[in-house]
Description:
By secondary structure, the protein is of the alpha+beta class. The protein has helices spanning 61-66, 68-75, 93-103, 111-115, 135-147, 152-166, and strands spanning 2-5, 8-11, 16-24, 30-37, 43-52, 80-91, 106-107.
Amino acid sequence: xxxxxxxxxxxxxxxxxxxxxxxxxxxxxxxxxxxxxxxxxxxxxxxxxxxxxxxxxxxxxxxxxxxxxxxxxxxxxxxxxxxxxxxxxxxxxxxxxxxxxxxxxxxxxxxxxxxxxxxxxxxxxxxxxxxxxxxxxxxxxxxxxxxxxxxxxxxxxxxxxxxxxxx
Length: 167
C-alpha cells in the first residue's frame, strides 16, 4: 500500500517491517498492524484495524472463551477493534519505539538496526558509566545520532554493541 502525507510517500512494498501485531477483532476478523521504516529512515504504521465505539454490549461467556475479552480488556469497555480500511500513519522515532514497546508486538530481525538496542532482557541489570570526551568528539557524536533520529545514548549503545559483536 502506498500513501502520501505532506508530499512524502510511504510504501509498504519498499519499506522494511520492524514489528508486527496480530490479533482477532470482536467480529472474529484477523487484525494486523505493522511498524515500518522506509529507505530514507521515516517510520510509519500500516493497519487494517479500527476502533468501533458502538461495540459496548457485555461479552457473552462464548465470546470470552473465544478471546474477545482480550481486546476489550486492552482497549476498554466502551468499544472494540474490528477490521477496517487499510491505512498508513507516519510516526516519529519516539512514537515508533513506543508503538513496538507498548503494544507488545513481535519484533523482526531488523528492529535493532533501525531503533537501537532492545531494552534489557527481563532480569538483566543495567549500569551507568561516565565517559570523558573532547568537545569536538561530543559534537560529532551528537550530529551522527541526530542524523539517524536517535538519542545520543541510544546511538552510543548501538555503536558499542555493534563494535563488540564485530570482534
